[in-house]
Specification:
This protein is α/β, with parallel strands linked by helices and 170 residues long. It contains 5 helices and 6 strands. α1 packs parallel to α2 and α3 runs parallel beside α5.
């Protein structure tokens, strides 16, 4: 397992790709595939599992590698909850690696500790991610009031790579 660490949360939006300086597709005369490194943010939600599936599928189609990242959010808790999140994250990145192996895609497992959106953005920049895939759950009115800016929104706003936001039913 790699030395970095991370966790994620959910949002309310449909699948979206935000583009900024995306290389031209390989069929248009450009050298190399569209995506070489796909960063998948893993979470223990249906949308998080859908993000892993989508990221692995895209990586398989483009001959890319996947970085499966789990962020242990240390902003609110630091005790037994962190240990539980670490066990959960271990299971999730192992599952991503297994899904990648089934699709013939190399998956590296990573953990980060800290604030989820900052860790995802820092990781994407440090590892030259060509695409960031993150899950987003449909949210209720109360959840929108309590958590107005979710991980996918913050990642989408701060990323220099395209961001694919995947819903559980996409």
């Amino acid at each position: 397992m790699s030395a970095d660490t991370d966790a994620s949360d959910s949002t309310n939006s449909s699948s979206t790709v935000t583009r900024s300086s995306v290389p031209a597709p390989s069929g248009s005369g450009a050298a190399g595939p569209l995506f070489e490194r796909v960063l998948v943010v893993t979470t223990d939600t249906d949308a998080g599992r859908a993000a892993v599936d989508a990221g692995v599928e895209i990586a398989a189609a483009h001959g890319a590698n996947v970085d499966a990242l789990y962020v242990v959010d240390t902003t609110e808790h630091w005790d037994m909850a962190v240990e539980r999140y670490e066990r959960e994250g271990e299971t999730l990145v192992e599952d991503a690696e297994s899904r990648g192996a089934d699709a013939g895609v190399d998956v590296e497992k990573w953990f980060r500790y800290g604030t989820a959106h900052r860790e995802v953005l820092d990781f994407a920049a440090a590892h030259d991610a060509d695409l960031i895939v993150v899950g987003s759950a449909r949210r209720t009115g109360f959840d929108r009031l309590v958590h107005p800016e979710t991980l996918p929104v913050r990642v989408q706003r701060g990323a220099s790579a395209p961001v694919l936001i995947v819903g559980a039913d996409d």
